[in-house]
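Quick one from the shared queue. A colleague (R.T.) flagged Putative 3-methyladenine DNA glycosylase as missing a structural entry in our internal table.

Convert sequence to structure tokens.
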Amino acid sequence: MAKIEPGFYERGDVLKISKALLGKLLVTEINGVRTSGRIVETEAYAGAGDRASHAWNNRRTNRTEIMYAPGGVAYVYLCYGIHHLFNVVVMGRDVPHAVLVRGLEPVEGIDVMLARTGKTRVDTTLTAGPGSLTKALGITTRLNGQPLTGDTVWIEDAPALRPREIAAGTRVGVAYAMDDAYLPYRFWIQDSPWVSKGKGLTR
């Protein structure tokens, strides 16, 4: 499939983009080796007005500056000093919205994914969860700021899902965000076994 055009990432609404990314193919090509997975789970982060976002209240730091770029670049950061988390920067310049990719269904290069993760067999722990999928695809902070139209990390198009195929709930690990922690900003493909086991909050 063709790479998604830059305009996809700058259209309208971070929630719509988060849902539209479901079913698309996240691809890396590192040292000539291609690996890919179908996106099955995403989380939206709505910038300056979202207490769960790194850019809450227009915070600008060395880490968050890439979020203020025009949509269509990678935002990769280290979580707890261990996990590299892959986000898609969306919207226009100086509108720091982003979509975290939380789960993939492995498609290509599965033997390479197993080697990278030290696993001997395929199960859902391979790419279900934002830290697991980046390890499997070889994504680290060195890809931070990479354009998603380049030749190292990109997203390929796929037919849009029907609304009934998509579920929504609260985000994972954002209890600090007060009322914003209860926003239904996490989306996943119904019944996919590759969705992470993380649980959002309920009132």
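The chain has a mean pLDDT of 96.
The chain is about 10% helix and 30% strand.
Added to the table.
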